[in-house]
Structure formats: structure tokens, C-alpha cells
Amino acid sequence: MVALIRTGDWETPLFFHVAGAMLLVGGMFVVSASLLLAWRSQDEGTSVALTRVAYRTLFFLVLPAYIVMRIGAQWVLSKSPFDAIADDLTWVTIGYLIADIGGILLLVALILAGIGLRRAADKGPGRTSARIVTVVTLLLLAAYIVAIWAMTTKPS
After folding, report:
1. Would 2 be classed as within a structural domain?
2. Domain membership flag for residue 4
3. What is the mean predicted confidence (pLDDT) over 58-82?
4. How many Cβ atoms are within 10 Å of 9's Cβ, its own excluded?
5. What is the CATH number of the domain that holds 145?
6. Which partner for 75 in 13, 55, 97, 119 could form a disulfide, CB atoms 3.0-4.6 Å apart?
7. Is 155 left (phi over 0), alpha (psi -120 to 50) or beta?
8. Which helix (H) or strand (E) holds 80?
9. pTM for this model (two decimals)
10. Eight-class DSSP state of 60
11. Does 105 fall in a domain?
């Protein structure tokens, strides 16, 4: 229904929002899968390599994708005819909550990932920080799937 009333000036911000969200979820999947494989790996070298891939993906792909997604979301809402508070758009509220809380959790994961990467350079991967980052990224991935559901079904 929203697509029927959408004007052409929504296309660019919506493209950036959706592209950022796709890269964000894809990057979180790569990070989660790499960390889970590193967690289960018996070989120390493979575990360190997978952990480094996960941490670098988190920093170089997921963080920029989050920024693009969040800026795109705000840009789309500014171009839309809706007022999220006055119109009580549940799907926008769900998206904002997940994005804002997810941003805080992403920063926590980045800090712990940086600590783990530094420890990996010194004496092997930081097992505790890697496992915490694994849990955080899995929670974020689940939350982003809920956000995708909210954005596509637009519950009221």
C-alpha cells in the first residue's frame, strides 16, 4: 500500500537504506558464521584466521553498512508523508528500536573484537571476547531479521 502513494523522491534514500540493510545483515551472517566455525575449530591456526576474518568483517563491512542503513532510514522518513509518532507506525518504531539498540550492541562487539584481535596478535585469540562477540552478533542477526519482518509486513 505504501508503494502506491510513494513519490519518486523516495527512491534514492530507500535504495541506500535497503542496500545498507542488506550489507549489514549479510556482513553479520559472515561474522556469526566465522565466529561459530572458529569456536568449533580444533586447529588453533584455523581458529585464529577465522576470528580475524570475523573481526575485520565487523569493522570494515558491518559498521559502514550500519551507518548507511541508519542514515538512509532517517532520510526515507524525512521524505515520507508519514509522521511516525502521530501516525503510530509500529513498523517504524520497531525499526528504530532495533537499529538504535543494535548500534549500541554493535559498538560493544567492535570494542570486544578489537580487544580480541589485539590479543590474537600477541598470544592467540581471546576466547572469552570471541565468544561474547559471537553471542552478540547472533542476537543482532536475529534482531535484524525481526526488523526485516517488520519492514516488509508493516504490522499495525
Report:
1. no
2. no
3. 90
4. 10
5. 1.20.120
6. 13
7. beta
8. none
9. 0.86
10. I
11. yes
